[in-house]
Design a protein that fits this description.
Helices cover 41% and strands 17% of the residues. The chain has 298 residues and is α/β, with parallel strands linked by helices. The strands form three sheets. It has a seven-stranded parallel β-sheet, sandwiched between helices. Strands 7-11 form a two-stranded parallel sheet. It has a two-stranded antiparallel ribbon with strand order 8-10.
Length: 298
């Protein structure tokens, strides 16, 4: 029976990394943080820090010796680094790899075909290849958009600015997960290695709609709100139009495709079956969700 105790975390300083680190430590894992040579970040005294050259396969392989698992929250656009990290994990005989997958349901064919997820699909293919030829196993964690972060930065709705873009009218249900819960899903995956081996797991804190969130938002931050109904079909077309330009603006295609994958019809971001029970994750009630929105308005 596989037991995972030592975990290497790549990308501990971004939006998601600190939440995953916190939950790994709470679950009792021995964590080593991979950080670029020359950086000087502050981490809890209980973790080990390994300075690595992400451009060097040997440097990464050396750093991963003796590790049971690798968790990556590196930006998905860093495709060469992600693929090198997978190769290094296999060479170092790491047991489990959790890639920087967190978000939309890339196991859905329509979502996987969106160009913004091309690099994630390449990482998935590399993991499947290693799983068939080496001892490396993997787990993909699908979470939907980050709930608390998505509201705080105005991606799901602009709570403090009193505005919301209602995709296809705002009535479509979608799964969404708080950063801390994503951390729990990562820890839970490593605590249940056999049940999560070589597959995708799905978690969420809530299944909701933009209209419901807007109603909570208006109560939490009263006043005049701006609502704009936007078609995901129009976003999809706009994304492709931008991408076909000689020098496309990443913001002009990344966000349209991301929003399409979450709120477009048939992209699979409403998780009807989840692994919440396996990880002890309880869905938020409407009252709890409303209270969370209220807290984010402060």
């Amino acid at each position: 029976m596989t037991t995972i105790t030592k975990v290497a975390l790549a990308g501990a300083t971004g939006n998601l990394g600190p939440a995953i680190l916190d939950q790994l430590l709470k679950a009792g894992f021995k964590v080593t943080i991979l950080t670029r040579i020359g950086t000087n970040h502050s981490f809890p005294s209980s973790v080990q820090v390994a300075h690595v050259d992400y451009e060097s396969l040997d440097s990464l392989t050396d750093a991963l010796q003796g590790q049971d698992a690798v968790v990556s929250t590196l930006a998905s656009v860093a495709i060469a680094v992600q693929l090198r990290l997978v190769e290094a994990a296999a060479k170092a005989k790491v047991n489990r790899f959790i890639p920087s997958e967190f978000g939309s349901n890339t196991l859905n064919e329509k979502t996987a075909a969106l160009p913004v997820f091309g690099d994630k699909i390449k990482v998935q293919e590399a993991l499947k290849k290693e799983a068939s030829s080496s001892g490396l196993t993997y787990t993909l964690i699908c979470t939907g958009p980050f709930l608390d972060w998505g509201i705080m930065v105005g991606f799901i709705m602009n709570l403090k600015g009193k505005s919301i873009e209602l995709l296809d009218g705002g009535d479509r249900y979608f799964s969404s997960t708080n950063l801390a819960t994503i951390g729990k899903a990562v820890a839970g995956t490593l605590l249940h290695p056999e049940e999560t081996k070589n597959r995708a797991v799905y978690v969420h804190d809530t299944v909701t709609t933009q209209k419901k969130l807007a109603a909570f938002g208006k109560k939490a931050n009263p006043g005049e709100w701006k609502e704009e109904v936007v078609s995901t079909d129009d976003l999809y077309q706009a994304g492709w139009a931008e991408l076909k330009k000689p020098q496309p603006d990443p913001n002009g295609f990344i966000f349209p495709f991301l929003k399409t994958s979450i709120w477009g019809y048939g992209y699979g971001c409403h998780f009807e079956n989840t692994d919440n029970a396996l990880f002890g994750i309880k869905e938020l009630s409407d009252a709890e969700l409303e209270e969370e929105v209220k807290g984010l308005a402060k």
